[in-house]
Amino acid sequence: MSKEDNIYRWLFDLAKHLVGQTPGRSWAAIFTSLLGQACLMVAMLLPIKVVMLLGLDAIPSYMPEPLRSMTLEQLTLLLSGLTLVFYGVYLAGEKLTGRWIDSAATEVIGKTGKVVLFENQGDIASDTYKRMVRAVAALLLTLGVISLLGVLYLNMCLALIAFFALSIWPAVRIFHYAQRINKPQLIIQSLNNLGNIGFLVCFAVVVVDHLYFSAPSVLFTIAALILARQATSKIAAGVGDLTHISRQREKVSALLYQEHLLLQSKGNQSDKIAPLLAPPARDRWLTQVLRQCEWLTSEQENIKVHWLQSTTPDVYIFGVVQVATGRSCLVKIFDTTRKALALHEASLLSSPCAEQLPAPKLEHASILDGFHIHVLATPPGGSPLDDRGQTEALSACALRALCYCPPGGEIQDAYLRSHPLLWQKLFGDLFQPLYLAADEEQTTHLNDICQHLEPIREKLRELPLTFVNPAINYRTLIAHDQNRAQVSQWGQWKIECFGAQFPANAQGIASIADIIDQAQGQRSDIAQIDSSLVKLACWLSGIEQAINSQRYLDALDLLPACINCLRAVKILPPPKPKQAP
């Protein structure tokens, strides 16, 4: 049995399981949902009839005898009142359905005897129950509408049945295609479009019958057309609910079936990218891409490909070496979930600033079967680290080179239009959580910072800007000289005030002094800067990151150093000398 067939079978078994576990509440929920949807349908139909009556001078003759004995005003008020009554019944039915569903879902989860599997599992169970009930009610309502149409308007009934039958094949194909490319919204859009087409088919039947053949009265025609519209929309919504349930199959099975386990995924690879990573297919598309960018110029050139460890999930890196010349490059392929990361990296590495960055040259960027591809030319003799002992020294080299590369031009303008800098993040509300864990002395420090936020922000605005790459580590460093290194991953680059990129510890502070001392001839704006202001940015950045991670005690530990820097840059006065007893 294919995977697709299994989905349909699983949905059918799930419906039987839910009803079998709590039959009373399940059927009660289906009944109240069906009643509510039927009442809503009538509530939508009656206002149209009221509007038609408002344009008449007398009650139409086709009205039943009890209604014709009323005045036009009385009938209008009666139908308007019934509209409110039916809508009220719909709301009450939905409320009651929700209670039945919540109660039944809680009981089914309890019967499995399992511990908590994941967050909001109760919400997922209730949502699954609700969608399944809605889908069953929609199916029953559609069958009821078709039966009623068979009495009111046989031709429209036959047209609707034919349309539903012919729609099964394209709906199934669309479902499989959307599942394969992981675009569930495509299913909903397509179902809505099919529903609209079904309504237009019914409308065409009405026009043809009234012009060329026999047709029921206008009243029955209007009622039949509205019923047909409800049938097509309800069945589309029901199929959409089943599609949503199928996307959470593993969680729902583990949650509602006693014998099912929630197995961890073997990886985040999409079904489509996994075959491209295997050696036979990988070598083919790698060769194709490298010829496109003319890194390979002859079909006779042989290459050796090896897998490199990526520090970012769903980003895969291959090292490629020309056997004859020894030239090397990196080829990255980004899964569809990392499209933004690929574009962010390409925007920087294709900018004029890239020439000064400790980064491989971006030779080529393209899209292969929906996946972004980057080809990065590594320097002669460059290779990923094979000795972890080199990490600290080469990380420092890469960080120093990054600091000496000034941002500017369009890349800086584009970044600053969409991302805040450190000084823009410092507001009083940021520090409020720290008061929960602060002692008396720390509270005093917090008050000093909060009362001087405006001058602090003004001071930080004076700092030059610099690029930041949080992905500098053993796996991303490329050594090509004893004193030089490049970084292979740039998907998370940022621009920040100088100082904010350093770790808020003694090692980071020492790096600041070293980089400022060696900045002469590299970046004059850094060489002339007050080191105390840079350290202030470092400590405040550390506090901000700790607060956002809810590490309040770690943030409070940084307050004394931050206060000392505020005094050094003369935002706070020096401490008062202690008086002798």
TrEMBL record:
<feature type="transmembrane region" description="Helical">
    <location>
        <begin position="199"/>
        <end position="227"/>
    </location>
</feature>
<keyword id="KW-0812">Transmembrane</keyword>
<feature type="transmembrane region" description="Helical">
    <location>
        <begin position="34"/>
        <end position="55"/>
    </location>
</feature>
<feature type="transmembrane region" description="Helical">
    <location>
        <begin position="75"/>
        <end position="93"/>
    </location>
</feature>
<feature type="transmembrane region" description="Helical">
    <location>
        <begin position="135"/>
        <end position="154"/>
    </location>
</feature>
<keyword id="KW-1133">Transmembrane helix</keyword>
<keyword id="KW-0472">Membrane</keyword>
<feature type="transmembrane region" description="Helical">
    <location>
        <begin position="160"/>
        <end position="178"/>
    </location>
</feature>
<protein>
    <submittedName>
        <fullName>Uncharacterized protein</fullName>
    </submittedName>
</protein>
